[in-house]
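Figure S7 source data.
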Amino acid sequence: MSNKIFALDAGHGGKDPGATGLGLKEKDVVLEICKQIKGYMDSQYPGIDCRLTRSKDAFTSLGDRTKKANQWKADCFVSVHINSAASSTANGFESFIYTTDDEKSKSHSLQQKLHYPLAKIWTEKGRKDRGKKKANFAVIREFKGASVLLELGFIVNQKDNQLLRRQDFIKSNVTTIGDAVASYFGMSKTKPETPVYRVKVDERQVGAFSKTENVARAVTTAVKSGKSRINVELVK
Ligand SMILES: [Zn+2]
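Tokens for the predicted zinc ion complex:
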């Protein structure tokens, strides 16, 4: 199977913070999510070439984002955003395709793949599924192919904001988006899951990590605090 190109667009950046509220900036949250999605795709789906329209905190115009993706001849384009509203009670997840995309469009199929599993993880946390929507947003209008814009919660809403600070919740968004795009391409994971190491000190688990650098850090901390009964086991 030939490689597919997945253009991933972290909204805003640099002088444009996007939505801000309760100590978070949209540009930072979406960049972190997109970097994690790229890491996930690179490790789990070797057949997908995931490319970021921006990979650091730099201003990138809307035109540049779609110009890059169109030059790459990307097979799909996903733009990641966090919502804002005048009311702090607004909450939950929604997805957008371009105004004239109909039921037969590729964007509609991609939206179907992304929307339902994402809505599931948001509603499981008691947040709203705000629905599959259409809008005249520049990035989804100008990209020549399947494109979806995601609004992952509201930065000004207390509960959404708290969820966006949780690594486990970010991770579920990351893997859900990654798996949905792979499913849109008709691909499944070809590699086993990444290993997980469990670190125990005095028979008590102090952490479970995939990265060996985190295992090393946990072991070092235990050694420094005078512990000697340290055990590292490979879970899977
Ligand atoms: Zn935004």
